[in-house]
Amino acid sequence: MGEWQAAIDALGFDLKLDGTADDLVEELLGHLPAAWREVEAGFECYVNGEEGTLDLVESNDGFDFGGPWTCSLEMSYAQEPSIAGTMMAGAAYAQATGGILWEAEGGEILTADAAVAMAHRTAIDIAHSLTGTDA
Known about the structure:
The chain is of the alpha+beta class and 135 residues long. 42% of the residues lie in helices and 23% in strands. The protein has four helices and eight strands; from the N terminus they run αβββββαβαββα. The chain has helices spanning 2-10, 50-59, 80-97, 112-131, and strands spanning 15-17, 29-32, 34-36, 39-40, 43-48, 72-76, 100-103, 108-111. Strands 1-3-4 form a three-stranded antiparallel β-sheet. Strands 2-5-6 form a three-stranded antiparallel β-sheet. A two-stranded antiparallel ribbon has the order 7-8. α1 crosses α3 (80-97). The longest helix has 20 residues, at 112-131.
């Protein structure tokens, strides 16, 4: 978790994951609390090992995920600030691990760099939405 938080910080995202540096990402199962701009922006996070990742890829055979991948994180959100939290955390994880981000709702597979750019745009859009100002 410490490395993930460091990757988030290095990208300039104002997102703080709840946990200690020694917590293992591999042990995540369920809601991961996080704060973005002092607002709850946590998300659901499940780690898939090699078998679960293979199942994910095979069940979405219309997408070319590249790879081969030995691990994947499934992340989902329930409210607007969590959209920003999920995108920032996912982009940072992809950047730190040399992975990709699959934005399933939009049907996009993003390189780490593209995911970071999308996360920045998403954070700006959500911030404007929350404050009621134009983007």
